[in-house]
Amino acid sequence: MMNKRWTQLEALRFLDEQEARSEHGWVLSTDVPPCHQQALEAAADNGLAELAGRDMRAELSAHEGRPVLWAARLTAHGHDVLAYAHASPAPAPHSEPPAAGKQLVRLRPAQMDALRVYISLSPTLRVPPADERVERVCTAYFDRPHNRWRLPLTTAQLESVAYAFHLRALTGSVAEANQFARDYGVAFRRDPAIGRAHGRRHALPSRIALTTGSYRRRA
């Protein structure tokens, strides 16, 4: 029951963040991972979120210039729940060690935002997220005192995260990839031997700097 409540609360937080960026106050399905959509539909049953009806979806479709089949926003009740959760004492950090074969990763909010974009694009990507990557993001624990998202990840999932930050680096900011490489020694780099890029581990500490068409290590 606690995990279900936590998942719903994280979905409400995500909806609140996306709603603040929306021009029309509604968050569309293209901006919400499937697991959050499911949690928000349950939240709507509890009066914490509102799902757009047929008429509103028609208005949103006209505004977006494409069909909108799903959209949601917080209700007043949902806003109050988030306000209360934010004012409540932070829960004790999870003390359980990661399961065998997994490593505990702590991501900054900007890194989590970049990862969520990658997850949201998973149906259309040629290099999709590693198995269970979507679920890991949706059930991640936010450690408020340290302002970090905590996720236990396998080696394949670590490389998948590095790929997400690689895409971010090639289209905007290299900060997320650099930080991840420094913290966990994993970066998505071009390998001249095989002529393509892939996730690679390197010794810590190091800094990965973006260059034209590849990454290079910088002392």
- What is the number of E strands? 10
Portion in beta strands: 15-25%
- Helix amount: 40-55%
State the helix count. Answer: 8
Q: pLDDT under 50 segments (min length 5)?
A: 203-219
- Secondary-structure element series: HEHEHEHEHHEEHHEEEE
Mean pLDDT: 80
Radius of gyration equals 19 Å
Globally, the shape reads globular
The assigned structural class equals alpha+beta
**Cα end-to-end separation:** 48 Å
Biggest sheet layout: 3 strands, antiparallel
- Main sheet: strand order: 1-3-2
What is the gist of this entry?
This protein has 219 residues and is an alpha+beta fold. It has helices at residues 2-21, 34-45, 54-64, 76-87, 109-120, 133-138, 155-171, 175-184, and strands spanning 27-28, 49-51, 71-74, 103-107, 141-143, 148-153, 186-191, 196-201, 207-211, 214-218.
3D architecture notes:
- With 219 residues, the protein is α+β, with helices and mostly antiparallel strands.
- It is built from eight helices and ten strands.
- A three-stranded antiparallel β-sheet has the order 1-3-2.
- The chain is globular, with a radius of gyration of 19 Å.
- The protein starts with a helix and ends with a strand.
Features:
219 residues, alpha+beta, 8 helices, 21% strand, globular
